[in-house]
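Review this chain:
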Amino acid sequence: MTGSSGRHKRLALGTLCVTMFMAMLDNVIVNIAMPRIGRDLSTGISGLQWVAEGYSLVYAALLLTGGALGDRYGRTRVFRLGLALFTAGSAAAALADTVGLLVGARMLQGVGAALLTPGSLAILRHVFTDERERARAIGLWSGVSALGLSIGPVIGGPMVDAFGWASVFWINVPVGVVGLVLASRVLPDLAPRARRIDLAGLALSAAGLGALVYGLIEGPSRGWTDARILGCGAATALLLTAFVLLELRLAEPMLELRLFRDRVLCGALLSGTMVSFGMFGALFFLPLMLQGVLAWAPTDAGYAGLPMTAMIVLAAPLSGRLIGRYGPRLPVVLGIALCAAGLGGLSLYGGHAHYVQYLWTLCTMGLGMGLTFTPVSIAVLQRVSAELTGMASATVNTVRELGGVLGIAVLGAVLANRLTSALTTRFDRLGIPADRAGHAADAFVGHTGGGGSGPALPPPVQAAVDGAFVDGLHLALRCGSLALAVTAVLVALLLGRAGRPGDPTPQPADRPAEAAAA
């Protein structure tokens, strides 16, 4: 490799890492600003869930289509378009003065992220043709992505304290502009190839996921037997079933479901989904407890995540060494088990616990997250050919994002249900009428302008509300922990001896999409 080509590769890798860092950062940096957004825009938990889910849902729904668009129109061109839309959405979010406008801007960010993410790993694979170089580059790319997820609250807290919640969106604008300039100069223009865009699959999957998330978020406040919620459940089942049947029939589907006959691929994707399920859910609700129940400042709540960030950074190289010696199974299963232990341990501490008492749980979760990110990406890319790299990259990020969407929605539903029942019980003990208990619960779920925007509650009532929220959070954390523990066992069985040093490279027997591409 010549000096100039080596420099060009480093610049290309730096550009891809910075933009992926920004996209991953946006998943979680907003969480630390949620209590302030709730107060300033007069919304409660369900409104705040939509601020998070507006981005994640669109991102997850469009990722696979983003990969197909990259194939058809050129991965670098679509990457640059996605980066431009993400930057514009960030500026719009910073300027939003209502929850509706903020959710709309977050959806535009999601569109941009869905276009730039699939091309990132595909371009990286094209730039680094040597296997060893490529492995190191993928490891760095994955580590930076994981760091973006972990460091968001750390840098977001001081920004919210100093400049307000809009600053967590403004930070993306200069980074995006610089990324666009670099992308136009250092990234190679990859030739497009003829490919059909699966618009019907996009419509079915997006509508099905949207109905599912809407039902999960609105179910606790409207009631699970409400006609609208039941309709969402039926629509979800019909739309997603139709999506699966359609994808199985198409020669060039949006998602090649037949690849899931490979149990190693299934295990890797399940790992990415469930780690995001547990950790995104925890990282969304934990700032609400720290700032709402414990009255911490955003800066303090953000700094509380520093040990988790440090452990992710330390775990990334450890994960690489474990992969080289034992294959992906050990770090993935160990990482999931550590995440389960951390979530379960965190549920043991109430609102009066001191930070040093539950510090170990944050370190454990950080170590678990750091161990899983790189081996999941490597395990998936080992199982597909170069022609399917774009789809594989999009699939990895889709399941991660979908896991986060479901984590916030499902664990949020668990929390909201427990909150409602606990408030009713606590208010009954205080002799407060049941309708006032329902009113307070609705405020938390987001239909009466809660989120700290209303007048201060009497101390006994505030204590009851805080205690009910902690009860709900504990149950949600335990559900997440149980789901991850079961996942660890399933993944251990699915991965088997996958990818151990000396094993032959797998050759899946049925690759219809690859044949169609040829």
User: Anything to note?
Assistant: The chain has 18 helices and no strands.
